[in-house]
Amino acid sequence: MNAKIVPVGVSARHIHLTREHIDILFGVGYELKPLKPLSQPGQFAAEETVAIVGPKGRFDKVRILGPARRASQIEISRTDAFQLGVDAPVRESGNIEGTPGMTVIGPAGEVALERGVIVAARHIHFQTKEAAAWGIADKQLLKVRVHGERPLVFEDVIARVSDDFALDLHIDTDEANAAGVATGGRAEIVDA
């Protein structure tokens, strides 16, 4: 059986914003300026950043990822959650029901998010044909060995399958630091 090798993408703290919240934070009609493309087609890191403020702390220069989304969402690591004083649950992106909120500050205004703060569940994006070739189904839980300075195996890695995705393992900075791996590293699916 051929090894199922996957590139690693390390996701630092970031925010996704709705069109409405971009207007409040940057001014009506403001368009985010792409800084660099991300691994997923059509997505980008924007030049713009915002501040996020929790009960115990604040982070400035939090990168916005574009394009605009249907719901605003802040993705942080567990370490970030401790520093901010927020009990962010581990969730799949987009699953923000029952999550805490936070204040977001931009150059033109601020938004008090009622919900949307999560620690993103580790996951692998698969293009549909790739997933089918490897016998992997959407939402399947995988076991993945990360080849870093301190190799380790992550369990319960969620398979996310779509025609619009490109192959990439997404882990947060806490997970990457634990394994001693960076974006561009590699991982191997060891149990599907």
Automatic annotation (TrEMBL):
One of its GO terms (biological process) is 1,2-propanediol catabolic process. It holds the Pfam family PTAC. It catalyses: propanoyl-CoA + phosphate = propanoyl phosphate + CoA. GO terms for molecular function: acyltransferase activity, transferring groups other than amino-acyl groups; metal ion binding. Its EC number is 2.3.1.222. Its cofactor is Zn(2+). Pathway: Polyol metabolism; 1,2-propanediol degradation. Keywords: Acyltransferase, Metal-binding, Transferase, Zinc. InterPro entries: PTAC (IPR008300). Belongs to the PduL family. NCBIfam families: PRK15070.1. Involved in 1,2-propanediol (1,2-PD) degradation by catalyzing the conversion of propanoyl-CoA to propanoyl-phosphate. This is Phosphate propanoyltransferase.
